[in-house]
Structures are given as structure tokens and as C-alpha cells.
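Example for tutorial group B:
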């Protein structure tokens, strides 16, 4: 099963539709009734856990109680939610702001500049407007930009936008810092699971530059009928872990919990962290990836940066043996990450259907 060289239909940029002033969205973006965002299934009185990470950066040697408390909060969030926010994480607030703003500037460049980076379903790298290659599929109300950071042989600065000025340098610095943060979190996840601190990272393919790290920048334009569509359909992330830099002024991310959708309220200069399918598989479902989606807004655009911290593409991923007890059995069949992620690249977001399909027959 290979990705095709090109899209099955001409690409329409959602931003162009939005800026044209259309009063109603085209039928291609109207979700079936059961998938539309409705107020009855939204829980507005809760939020995902918010965790102060500073105890693991500044005070680790001086205050073991604080370290234990923070580690426990992360463990509980991974087991109970699959999502959490972290603040005081060591990435400079001004770098976070600048990274978000250079991408906002990119999406407001002239169309011909953006089109020079147009992507294909073969790699998805570049400027895009759809996931999946099914002809006639219902599409999401969003544009995006996808690029590779690791491993080094996949990173090509020529495929990164050259405009606005300094954007490549800003993205290089930003992704370097986010990768460091991802490495710290991997150690914490591993220790909290009762493993050696590098065991999960080793399962990803090693501690060096052999893992996969990529960035998807999401641009959600204003939408005249936000009750009929979604910016990103319900899905769980196919990779290992996602570190999301949200728009601080426009909420949009919703997480499924107990049959309701929780609208995430971003804390200032926080990263939203979520468990992906690969960590669910490695942990034998002790940690679970969770369905999430994005709603859109009639009055404001929204920009977010999702950094995906993934296993090496050819790495075979299956439950870690140390997490399978004598009476338990592995829940999932091993599969390489390259094989796994091809599912979403061909079919688009599809809830948790892919990870569920991996379950070993009983």
C-alpha cells in the first residue's frame, strides 16, 4: 500500500474560501449530522490537567517532594486523560510567540508564494489543505504546513518557507527546544511506567537523531457556518507524543472524555501534550491516546503548531515486554511506524479505528 503521487481532485485553499466572503460553506465541508459540533455534547465546566513543570527543571536536586508530586501529576494525567498542559517548561515564551507569529505571517503571504510550497500525498511535506486521498471525501475547514525536522536526512530547509524573513532560523531554534522538552517527557513517562528512564526512548529508535520529529502548522480560517463543519475531524494522533503550541486567544481544540467533548482552555505560554497511538501500543494501553478534534470560529482565525515526537519510521513498535505480566498478554500486534502512519495519510482522520485494528486476536 503506497501513497499516490497526487491528490484525486483539484485543491481548494480553505483560506481563499473564507476570505472570499461566502455566506455558506460548500457541501464538501459539511459533516454528517452525528459529527457536527453541538452544544449538548460539550462539557464547558472542566479542563485538561494543568501541570507546573518547573520542579523538574529548576528544583530537581533540592526538592524531591516537588519532583515526586510533579511526576505523579503527569502519571495521573497520562493514565486518566491522555492530555495535559505544562507551564514553566523551559522553552522561552518569546520564542513560542515568535514561532507562532512567523507562521501566521506565512499564511497571509500572497497566494503564489504559498503555492510554491504546495504538497502532495506522497510525503505531505509543504503547504496543504486536506488529509486522505479518497475522492469526494468530506473535507476539514483548515489549511496547514507540514515539515520534517528529524531524522537529519529528511530535513530540507529548502522545503521550509523562506518567508517571512528569519522564519527558517526561528523554526530551527523552536523545534530544537521542543525536541529537548520531548526527550525530558519521554524519560518521565518511562520512569512513571516503572521502566528504565531511557527504555521508551530506546523503543522509539534511540536517544540520538534517529527518531522522527515533524511539525504540522494548522491554520483555521474564519468560518461562516461553524456548526456544520470541523477544522480537524475526530482522531487520535498516530505517532508517539504531540506537543502543541495553541493559539492563546482562540479556543478550538476539544478532547473526548466520558462521552463529552472538553474544550481546552489554553494557559499562557503552555504546551498541550498528548499521548499518541505508538505510546499506547508500547505501554500496552496503560497510557491511552485520546480522540480529539478542532472546532472553528465565525469571527476569528486560529493558528496552532503541532510538533510530533515519533518513533523511527522503520522501527517495529509493540508492547514493551516489561509491561506484560505473567498472566497478561500483549494487546497489540507489532507494526513499523511507517506502515502505521500510512493509514491516516490515505484515509484521513478516523477516530481510533487504526489503533483498535492492531489489537491481537483473543
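The residue assignment follows.
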Amino acid at each position: 500500500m503506497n501513497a499516490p503521487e497526487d491528490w484525486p481532485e483539484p485543491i481548494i485553499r480553505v483560506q481563499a474560501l473564507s476570505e472570499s466572503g461566502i455566506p455558506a460553506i460548500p457541501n464538501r465541508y459539511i459533516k454528517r449530522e452525528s459529527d457536527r459540533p453541538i452544544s449538548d455534547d460539550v462539557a464547558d465546566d472542566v479542563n485538561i490537567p494543568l501541570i507546573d513543570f518547573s520542579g523538574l527543571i529548576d528544583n530537581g536536586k533540592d526538592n524531591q517532594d516537588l519532583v515526586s508530586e510533579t511526576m505523579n501529576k503527569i502519571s495521573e494525567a497520562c493514565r486518566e486523560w491522555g492530555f495535559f498542559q505544562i507551564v514553566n517548561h523551559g522553552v522561552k515564551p518569546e520564542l513560542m510567540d515568535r514561532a507562532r507569529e512567523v507562521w501566521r505571517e506565512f499564511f497571509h503571504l500572497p497566494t503564489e508564494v504559498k503555492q510554491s510550497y504546495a504538497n502532495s500525498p506522497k510525503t505531505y511535506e509543504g503547504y496543504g489543505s486536506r488529509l486522505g486521498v479518497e475522492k469526494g471525501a468530506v473535507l476539514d475547514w483548515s489549511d496547514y504546513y507540514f515539515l520534517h525536522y528529524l531524522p537529519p536526512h529528511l530535513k530540507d530547509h529548502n522545503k521550509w518557507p523562506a518567508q517571512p524573513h528569519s522564519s527558517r532560523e526561528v523554526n530551527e531554534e523552536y523545534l530544537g527546544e521542543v525536541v529537548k522538552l520531548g526527550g525530558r517527557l519521554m524519560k518521565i513517562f518511562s520512569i512513571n511506567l516503572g521502566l528504565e528512564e531511557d527504555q521508551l526512548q530506546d523503543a522509539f529508535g534511540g536517544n540520538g537523531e534517529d527518531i522522527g520529529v515533524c511539525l504540522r502548522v494548522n491554520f483555521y480560517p474564519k468560518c461562516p457556518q461553524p456548526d456544520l463543519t470541523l477544522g480537524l475531524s475526530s482522531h487520535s494522533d498516530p505517532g508517539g507524543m504531540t506537543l502543541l503550541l495553541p493559539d492563546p486567544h482562540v479556543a478550538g481544540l476539544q478532547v473526548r472524555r466520558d462521552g463529552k467533548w472538553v474544550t481546552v482552555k489554553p494557559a499562557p505560554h503552555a504546551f498541550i501534550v498528548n499521548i499518541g497511538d505508538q505510546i499506547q501500543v508500547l505501554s500496552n494501553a496503560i497510557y491511552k491516546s485520546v480522540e480529539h478534534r478542532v472546532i472553528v470560529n465565525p469571527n476569528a482565525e486560529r493558528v496552532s503548531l503541532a510538533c510530533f515526537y515519533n518513533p523511527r519510521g522503520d522501527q517495529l513498535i509493540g508492547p514493551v515486554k516489561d509491561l506484560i505480566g505473567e498472566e497478561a498478554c500483549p494487546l497489540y500486534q507489532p507494526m513499523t511506524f511507517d506502515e502505521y502512519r500510512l493509514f491516516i495519510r490515505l484515509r484521513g482522520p478516523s477516530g481510533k479505528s487504526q489503533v483498535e485494528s492492531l489489537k491481537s486476536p483473543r
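The mean pLDDT is 92. Compare this with the pattern of hydrophobic and polar residues in the output above.
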